[in-house]
């Protein structure tokens, strides 16, 4: 529970929380509100001093002053509904007469070329929605009486025409969102396909607005929608009860949504809106309307919150609205409306999204009667005694609507949310589900700002310092020899420490600090291939390190080794080699290849590498938002699906379940340093400096380097168990690293870092240096399992193609085209990826921004 101080934005202890953006819907509303009525709704319950009745806040101003921020508006009215119903009645009658006159047989009547009814264009009488300066804060709602899934071709055609007329008109008026009631049943795949085609057409017709499909989380039995539709009017046998099943399929509503958005090609303008009550989609007594124009969902939140798997599934969807019916609220002990703990938890979780869904409260007032009679401004100054008393009790002005208890409760929930944590800064939140090309520090020279961002994460450096400290302590404990020992000075205590890929030097600082802490005398080298960062290191050595660091501007693979102090004629060995060349998938920044090139200088057998080892891990995910994003990028970037992306995965559904023998996150492979038998070392020893001559461009054993990098090829074949139906859009990749593995003393813990979701808190809590990597699946993602009761084994094969260790090739941008992925069959897939290379087509400035952010937020 928060203290009052922490809720006050002026207070120093103020902690910010997600803001609730609350809208109002009235199911009996058949006309869009007038300006004054609109203002009255927005102002209902606002503190009296905050607004004037005729100059409402209209979507601006502080969150605490506004209770409702937007309202829903029917696009058309009862007049239009009556007109369409009459049109169809007349058509059926005329058709009957026509059939009689001509004596048509049943098969002639079924001729699809018999013309159906055509809905004439809208008139002034059909709608009270007009362009206004607050149209953008209205949610336009398409007529709920249409039935796009109807098996009756005339009803479905009329419904489609109505939707198109309404979508076009709302779009013309400037509405940004159009809410369309979702399908009422999920059983008919033909009906759902018909619905999806209609939505695709509406997306074209309303070419600017977002379209929100209003869906229940699942079909709660007994709570089916009872609204009057063209189907119930003209063919009661097609009503909602038709074919009603007793068995609940939790995922059937999601299946329908999945079909709709797939047929709409994952349009970025299509969203979902979810209703949090048991009444079904927003009902307008025949007239429900909201306006917006891309495809999103509005989800109907049920009275009983379903199992976690289904909540996670919807969490990953492009959710625009959560709608909450009045009936979902239960009176608390004092008689005020409240929501169950499950609902609260669910809302709190959804509010942590970068773009949290908006909330629509249905039928919670102000009541239509309250809005029907506009207060006379002069009467407000002379209220009756009773009115004045009532208003005083409710802390409002006379003639303003009563304070809205439901909104008041939602505002209370807003304040009760846990404050944003250190991991939820605006910068970090802005990286949620945002695709960035991975850094390539070997091929590119990083900029100072990028290093600065690296240095902003103390957790990584603390763990490195801990690892170096442990290594130095054990060195003494185990009485290991040092590499500065010479025949003249056999017991020299100085350790040779080398930081390779030093950047701006944070690991050098940590190594010096560890040496001081443990009282270990050291000789220290720092290598860096980035000439600009090297200048920074020179300065730092002079100003901060007292010139005790030997700096070498070199690619570590071409370094000759340390020339010992006082014995510059002797090239010695390295006792502790420190590097940080790790990518989000461990090896993808070519750490194994770089370490291969320098490990010949590590003293054998006692020299060590920090990191000691690293492992790559995978898990299949459903991530419709990223898939939609990539699909929209393909036009300008044909390789969008061929790129492994760095992304702070957030709104994703981990579809695999942890079962014995098959964890949710599975290890793909491991690299351990130093490599015991490195073919590259043998090759170099054999050919000396001439070894470089044998190296040509290309990959693996084809590289001409005698297969010197084949030991870095990796291959894995993993099986995941996926218990529920769904879609896989790609693989989430993570890494872990043992920086130092203790060599003495039983029971000592290794020093580790991890970005695995189920390990990070234990091994390196709050480390933000790396976001996960995402390998998208290009075409044909996998639907699983085939039937409701089966669990499916998902088989994935991933290959790491080893590349030449040639410096020339590593830096080449044309050598090979990054990883490739191909789907093999319906239930398994394989990837080949070449680490360290990827398409780089973005402009220089774009790259600067993205590289700075690729592992760290800027
Ligand atoms: C991820 S940065 C880490 C920098 C620094 N150690 C830190 O933790 O802030 C990797 C650094 O290694 C350097 N680097 C990468 N490959 C290298 C190579 N083969 N030889 C020398 N430096 C290399 C890059 O220029 C970059 O400065």
UniProtKB/TrEMBL annotation:
<feature type="active site" description="Proton donor/acceptor">
    <location>
        <position position="580"/>
    </location>
</feature>
<keyword id="KW-0949">S-adenosyl-L-methionine</keyword>
<feature type="domain" description="PRMT5 TIM barrel">
    <location>
        <begin position="295"/>
        <end position="415"/>
    </location>
</feature>
<feature type="binding site">
    <location>
        <begin position="460"/>
        <end position="461"/>
    </location>
    <ligand>
        <name>S-adenosyl-L-methionine</name>
    </ligand>
</feature>
<protein>
    <recommendedName>
        <fullName>Protein arginine N-methyltransferase</fullName>
    </recommendedName>
</protein>
<dbReference type="GO" id="GO:0005829">
    <property type="term" value="C:cytosol"/>
</dbReference>
<dbReference type="InterPro" id="IPR035075">
    <property type="entry name" value="PRMT5"/>
</dbReference>
<dbReference type="InterPro" id="IPR036237">
    <property type="entry name" value="Xyl_isomerase-like_sf"/>
</dbReference>
<feature type="binding site">
    <location>
        <begin position="555"/>
        <end position="556"/>
    </location>
    <ligand>
        <name>S-adenosyl-L-methionine</name>
    </ligand>
</feature>
<dbReference type="InterPro" id="IPR035248">
    <property type="entry name" value="PRMT5_C"/>
</dbReference>
<keyword id="KW-0489">Methyltransferase</keyword>
<dbReference type="Pfam" id="PF17286">
    <property type="entry name" value="PRMT5_C"/>
</dbReference>
<feature type="domain" description="PRMT5 TIM barrel">
    <location>
        <begin position="68"/>
        <end position="276"/>
    </location>
</feature>
<dbReference type="GO" id="GO:0005634">
    <property type="term" value="C:nucleus"/>
</dbReference>
<feature type="binding site">
    <location>
        <position position="451"/>
    </location>
    <ligand>
        <name>S-adenosyl-L-methionine</name>
    </ligand>
</feature>
<dbReference type="InterPro" id="IPR035247">
    <property type="entry name" value="PRMT5_TIM"/>
</dbReference>
<dbReference type="Pfam" id="PF17285">
    <property type="entry name" value="PRMT5_TIM"/>
</dbReference>
<dbReference type="GO" id="GO:0016274">
    <property type="term" value="F:protein-arginine N-methyltransferase activity"/>
</dbReference>
<dbReference type="GO" id="GO:0006355">
    <property type="term" value="P:regulation of DNA-templated transcription"/>
</dbReference>
<dbReference type="GO" id="GO:0032259">
    <property type="term" value="P:methylation"/>
</dbReference>
<keyword id="KW-0808">Transferase</keyword>
<dbReference type="InterPro" id="IPR029063">
    <property type="entry name" value="SAM-dependent_MTases_sf"/>
</dbReference>
<dbReference type="Pfam" id="PF05185">
    <property type="entry name" value="PRMT5"/>
</dbReference>
<feature type="domain" description="PRMT5 oligomerisation">
    <location>
        <begin position="613"/>
        <end position="782"/>
    </location>
</feature>
<comment type="similarity">
    <text>Belongs to the class I-like SAM-binding methyltransferase superfamily.</text>
</comment>
<dbReference type="InterPro" id="IPR025799">
    <property type="entry name" value="Arg_MeTrfase"/>
</dbReference>
<dbReference type="InterPro" id="IPR007857">
    <property type="entry name" value="Arg_MeTrfase_PRMT5"/>
</dbReference>
<feature type="domain" description="PRMT5 arginine-N-methyltransferase">
    <location>
        <begin position="428"/>
        <end position="610"/>
    </location>
</feature>
<feature type="active site" description="Proton donor/acceptor">
    <location>
        <position position="589"/>
    </location>
</feature>
<feature type="binding site">
    <location>
        <position position="528"/>
    </location>
    <ligand>
        <name>S-adenosyl-L-methionine</name>
    </ligand>
</feature>
<feature type="site" description="Critical for specifying symmetric addition of methyl groups">
    <location>
        <position position="454"/>
    </location>
</feature>
